[in-house]
Amino acid sequence: MLTLLLIVLAIVGLLAVMRREAGAVPAIAVLGVLGLVGVLFEAYVIGVILLILAAGVAVTGLPALRRSWLTPRLFTTFKKIAPKVSATERTALEAGSVAWDGELFSGRPNWQALNRYTDDGLSEEEQAFLDNQCAVAAGMCNAWDITQVRADLPQALWDYIKQERFFGMIIPKEYGGLGFSAKAQSMVLQKLSANETLMVTVGVPNSLGPGELLLKYGTQEQKDHYLPRLADGREIPCFGLTGPRAGSDATSLPDIGTVCKEVIDGEEVLGLRLTFEKRWITLAPIATVVGLAFRLFDPDKLLGEEEDRGITLALIPRDTQGMEIGRRHHPIGSPFMNGPIKGKDVFVPLDTIIGGEKMIGQGWRMLVECLSIGRCITLPSGATGTARYALGWSGGFTRVRRQFNVPVAEMEGVQEPLARMAAMAYIAQATVYQTANLIDHGEKPAVPSAILKSQLTEFQRTLLGDAMDVHGGKAVTLGPRNYLGIGYSANPVAITVEGANIMTRNLMIFGQGAIRCHRFVLDELAAKDANDINAFDKAFFGHTGMIFGNAARAFTMGLGIGKPSVPFEGPALAYAQDISRLSAGFGLCADAAMASLGAALKKREMLSARLGDVLSNLYMTSMVLKQWQHGSKVEGEEALLHYSCRFLLHRAEQALVETFDNLPNRAVGKVLNAIVMPTGRRWDKPHDDLARDIAKRVSTHSPLRTKLLANTWDSDDGDFPNPLAQYNALLVDYERAEAIYRTVNKAYAKGELPQTALHPEARVEAGLEAGIVSDEDAVFMREFETKVLEMLTVDDFAYDAFVRDRDTLIDHNAAKSPAENIESAPTPNTTPPAAPSAVDKTPEPETPETPRTR
Ligand SMILES: Cc1cc2nc3c(=O)[nH]c(=O)nc-3n(C[C@H](O)[C@H](O)[C@H](O)COP(=O)(O)OP(=O)(O)OC[C@H]3O[C@@H](n4cnc5c(N)ncnc54)[C@H](O)[C@@H]3O)c2cc1C
């Protein structure tokens, strides 16, 4: 009996010590005292075991004892198995800062650290720009005209965005830019996502590229010359890193610069001779200044002793002799400017190097440092904006589209994707806004930038698929009335650029996070590199304490013992507490995976991706809670909070379970499962009741819909009809219309209206005649139905409208025999697709509606 009691007390005591990461001394005290009690009261076996354990903890836990014999042995082994960190990886790891991502990695997140980032919202000037200039720009876009007719933004829109300094959002006011906060930039790009070509065109110069590079690293002369010209659009920048040989592995770029001298106007000038081939460079076809990444060599040692000077960045004017620029690629779904750049033996003076001579060889560091901010803003904001527009259109369409005599939004099969879309839009909005807020507080969130880029563009992919599904044929049929299909087909661009999603998810989030965000790993690796045994001892045993602490916290919290203290209340409380529990489990699994796989983990990308998913979902849940805590709440939002948090935490747990199941060491997987989920999984997928409630709200005129669509382009005063404004207006009238539908349908079912009144308009007219619909209601319904029909209508075109080469046109219905038809068919066209000039031959598609004049 005493033995059992001592075992229980030892376990409880040790768990309490480990949970608090209280260190070796309390653990030795617990084991020592219980061991002595065992020996004194004749429970010798357990007493001796506990005393031996106490001695073991003393040897490993007390620095003075362990440093003399244990640490040297561990250090020797560590040096053999620790992964090698390449110079490129080290640069990436050292870029940016660690904030909330580090807290989640620690297993014991300090929520006060997140709350420290207060939110002051947008300035009046930023809000005014969002309300006015952004609405005007969005109102000048017609997706059909842009993609199918002119393959460009209209000239008036180019002039407007330059004049209003859309390209200068990140450029400070003293250089003539707008000097906007990260939050404002994000909200501008969300609003401009009404049209993806506009969003990309404005987003790219404000993201990673010459503007940001000059701001951070440019010489004063370069800043003074370029920044004002970039801000007002006199200069259009592009940035060329990618080439045919270097895509995801961008540092393998084969583009070369050689230091040399050239005689210009009789004077010898020190400069670079560049040979390069870049592709997919956004804005290149129209750029006036090209940011270029290349590897610099100095074979004649004109600049110093080193020959290979590393990746270097320069800013080269378009009209530099030898530069081949101007051709276009054809990105899927969106004709934003994108094309190749080439050059052979192009000479540029030394002062074209961004930051001057001192920044030679610093190119990769400069790029990854800038990426940590730009990648948090541009694509995630585009994804969030797209999500919100797609949700707004889908809610509107599914409410006014009736099948089986009811709006399709009333059908559960449609409610499921509608609710999912609402949650993804809500999560994306919170994540991008709160992360932008961290940036406004000076953070450079490197790991979150990979999370946001890949997760939110994946949301966009799912959400656009859902939007297409609930629209049925309406979105499948291309034409000026199709507000969704063109954006849907452009989605792969966001998936691919700024780090393709597969690589970002599988390699970067956990791969970088495990080293960058971990409290001890970077120190351990640095100690290894510096051969510093004391630093290693400190980091390694701190790490060991953290592992035991995480195991104890994950296990006890998994049993429901000891809820962590979090600064949340009400519906957010349980989710915040569970983030703390899962963070402990995640921290433990991350360490177990690193310890059991060592350097091999780098190649186990499927495991790395799942661990990255745990971190990503915990990060996004935290952002949702922060937004909830500090923002004003509207009716129905609580259901969306529950749906979103359950959706994310379910995904986090799923990723953990799949990690346990796939660890090569099955025993480690099973032990982890038992510690982290002692009572099984806690989060099911969101309940159907929540989905029904949310779907109803986003497909009707409700405070929740209004909140989700806040700061989108929703006015109908642009050059072209705005589908979102049209749906919003219909939803305001919907309840009245629904009551009339019900009245006439009921009367029709009872046989009180003529059998030939088959569609709503006919039934309203029949109802008017039968005296069951008032004159005012009939007038109202005629107008309402006309507007609904307009939203349901799709375009059709002349038979030959899509043909580029009229010689290939077959008249299938010519009054000839089939044999004659074959004979007269043109020979197969084996020539490459028509050159841009062939577009001239394309007939103007019939545009069923006349654009509004401004
Ligand atoms: C429309 C468009 C605009 C662009 N704009 C610019 C620009 O302005 N400037 C610029 O410099 N570049 C630009 N790019 C290039 C873009 O950044 C690259 O396309 C991107 O980095 C991926 O390279 P890749 O397409 O060659 O894919 P690849 O590198 O060939 O990759 C193919 C697949 O393999 C995966 N993969 C690669 N390595 C790994 C790995 N280690 N682990 C797991 N998966 C991996 C990738 O995720 C991808 O799915 C643009 C590209 C496009 C299409």
Automatic annotation (TrEMBL):
Its cofactor is FAD. It catalyses: a medium-chain 2,3-saturated fatty acyl-CoA + oxidized [electron-transfer flavoprotein] + H(+) = a medium-chain (2E)-enoyl-CoA + reduced [electron-transfer flavoprotein]; a long-chain 2,3-saturated fatty acyl-CoA + oxidized [electron-transfer flavoprotein] + H(+) = a long-chain (2E)-enoyl-CoA + reduced [electron-transfer flavoprotein]. Residues 841-854 have a biased composition (Basic and acidic residues). Residues 123-233 form the Acyl-CoA dehydrogenase/oxidase N-terminal domain. Residues 515-797 form the Acyl-CoA dehydrogenase C-terminal bacterial-type domain. Residues 238-337 form the Acyl-CoA oxidase/dehydrogenase middle domain. Keywords: FAD, Flavoprotein, Membrane, Oxidoreductase, Transmembrane, Transmembrane helix. Belongs to the acyl-CoA dehydrogenase family. Pfam families: ACDH_C, Acyl-CoA_dh_1, Acyl-CoA_dh_M, Acyl-CoA_dh_N. Pathway: Lipid metabolism; fatty acid beta-oxidation. The keyword Transferase does not apply. It is an enzyme of class 1 (oxidoreductase). This is Acyl-coenzyme A dehydrogenase. The lineage of its organism: Bacteria, Pseudomonadati, Pseudomonadota, Gammaproteobacteria, Oceanospirillales. Its EC number is 1.3.8.7, 1.3.8.8. PANTHER family: ACYL-COENZYME A DEHYDROGENASE, MEDIUM-CHAIN SPECIFIC ACYL-COA DEHYDROGENASE, MITOCHONDRIAL-RELATED. Residues 814-854 are annotated as: Disordered. It comes from the Bacteria. NCBIfam families: PRK09463.1 (NF007000), PRK13026.1 (NF009586). The chain crosses the membrane at residues 43-65. It comes from Halomonas dongshanensis. Residues 361-501 form the Acyl-CoA dehydrogenase/oxidase C-terminal domain. Gene3D superfamilies: Acyl-CoA dehydrogenase/oxidase, N-terminal domain, Butyryl-CoA Dehydrogenase, subunit A, domain 2, Butyryl-CoA Dehydrogenase, subunit A, domain 3.
